[in-house]
Amino acid sequence: GAVVSQHPSWVICKSGTSVKIECRSLDFQATTMFWYRQFPKQSLMLMATSNEGSKATYEQGVEKDKFLINHASLTLSTLTVTSAHPEDSSFYICSAPKGSGPQHFGDGTRLSIL
Amino acid sequence: GEDVEQSLFLSVREGDSSVINCTYTDSSSTYLYWYKQEPGAGLQLLTYIFSNMDMKQDQRLTVLLNKKDKHLSLRIADTQTGDSAIYFCAEGKTSYDKVIFGPGTSLSVIP
C-alpha cells in the first residue's frame, strides 16, 4: 500500500485563492520531504526541500513567499500556493525518503487555477 | 553538475523489445531509477539499480548500467500496448537526497 499520502488529488479554484496541499508519511517518520512540480508535457522539477523543524530550502527561481512550506511534524509537510494564478496550474508531487530504499512519492495533486 | 538526458520519443511494435536510453552526469549518484507515468497519473517506480551493479532484471524489465560511461538503459521485453507511457530516468546521490529527473521518453506501442 501507499506509504506517502498526498491530499487533495485535484483542486480547481479561482485566481487569487490560496491552496494548501498536504503530504504525509504513513508509517514512518520523515525529517525531510521534497516537493516537485510538473508542468504539462514536461519533466518533474524540484521546487524545495522541506525540513522538519526548520526552514525549507528552495531551488533557484522558486518564490519562497509564494510557495509556503511548513514541516511542523515528522509525518506531515504542507505546501501552500498563495494567491494562485493560472500560471501556477501544474501537477505537484511530494516525496519522502524511507530507509535505504528508493524514495516514496505521493500520488500528486493536480492544481487548476481558473 | 547534475543532469539527466534521454531521448524524447520511441515507437515500437507490439511484441517487440523496447530500449530506452539515458545518460547522467553525476558520477556520485548511487541510486538510478526508472519511473513510468501514464497520462494524467502519478509516478510509478518501475525499478532501480545501485551504482555498484551492472544489471538488474525484473520479469520483462532489464536495466543495464555502464558506470564508466554514465549510461543507463531500460529494456522492456515483449512490449504491450499497456506499456505506452512516459518513462523517466532519474538519479539520486543517496536514498535521502533529492531525485533528479530526465525529460522523459514517450513510448508509443503500435498494435
Based on the model shown, name its key terms.
heterodimer, A: 114 residues, mainly beta, seven-stranded mixed sheet, four-stranded antiparallel sheet, globular, B: 111 residues, six-stranded mixed sheet, five-stranded antiparallel sheet, 11 strands
Would you give an account of this structure?
The complex is a heterodimer of chains A (114) and B (111). Helix content of chain A is 0%, strand content 52%. Chain A has 114 residues and is mostly beta strands. In chain A, strands 2, 4, 5, 6, 9, 10 and 11 form a 7-stranded mixed β-sheet that branches. Chain A has a 4-stranded antiparallel β-sheet with strand order 1-3-8-7, with no helix packed on it. In chain A, a hairpin with a 7-residue loop joins strand 9 and strand 10 (104-105). Chain A is globular and about 40 Å long. With 111 residues, chain B is an all-beta fold. Chain B has strands spanning 4-6, 9-13, 18-24, 31-37, 43-50, 55-58, 61-66, 71-76, 85-92, 100-101, 105-110.
Set out the fold topology.
The complex is a heterodimer of chains A (114) and B (111).
Chain A: E1 4-7, E2 10-13, E3 19-25, E4 32-38, E5 44-51, E6 57-58, E7 67-73, E8 76-81, E9 90-96, E10 104-105, E11 109-113
Parallel strand pairs in A: 2-11
Antiparallel strand pairs in A: 1-3, 3-8, 4-5, 4-9, 5-6, 7-8, 9-10, 9-11
Chain B: E1 4-6, E2 9-13, E3 18-24, E4 31-37, E5 43-50, E6 55-58, E7 61-66, E8 71-76, E9 85-92, E10 100-101, E11 105-110
Parallel strand pairs in B: 2-11
Antiparallel strand pairs in B: 1-3, 3-8, 4-5, 4-9, 6-7, 7-8, 9-10, 9-11
